[in-house]
Please model this.
Amino acid sequence: FERDCSVQRRHQKVMEEAPAPSLTRKTREKMGAAAVAAAKAINYVGAGTVEFLLDEKENFYFMEMNTRLQVEHPVTEMITGLDLVEWQIRVAEGAKLPLAQKDLKINGHAFEARLYAEDPERDFLPGAGQIQFLRFPLQGAHTRIDTGVREAARGRGDVISIHYDPMIAKIITWGKDRAEALHNMAEALDHTYIAGPKSNINFLRALARHPAFKAGKVNTHFINDHHKSLLPGKTAPAPVTLMLAVLGLLKQREKFA
Model:
């Protein structure tokens, strides 16, 4: 099936979902058939994603094919119950896939938010630094966390390097419908905490609760169109935030005293 990756900055994806909001069944079937035809035309074998641009009248245009698993493949896994990594290995081994296209069904809705070390207030400038504190929500049937970094002992965590992509984690949520999946995403983001490098966590929280995004009115200019509401001006921190910061500094001094 399809994934919608419209919300982007610098042509890089930030939030993805499956299935695409408001896409008609007819267009979904036509787009899927076009993707399969493209793969068959070149005798393609393996995991891959065909990307299209879609206009307001649901005309779609071929853009490119990614001959690999993509970062957002978990949303497809969440709505189909399949393990695409396992399937890719099966194909590499020459085995037949256990299911045909006609056997696949869409179950519910899923979102993926990309947690980056970047500064949204400086045009999403990539960042770097050592992870001092990192906490994610509990994983379960509705929430999944994919990450390759961690907070280590005594606050000396992994380092987000300038030499690689600054992604910290992927936060994926599922729901029986789009509204529930997005509610679960907002809750998951509220229970994600990070200290160290500058991150886009507050931007993601604002995006998940934005009225236009909740209504499914997404396009590739979404962030530019709603820049002021997604990135409001800086305000003074709340007193409780300052108190916790002071407490953290005092505890840190005790450790190294």
About this structure: DSSP finds nine helices and 13 strands in the chain. Residues 132 and 155 are 5 Å apart (CA to CA). The longest strand covers residues 167-175. The chain has a mean pLDDT of 92.
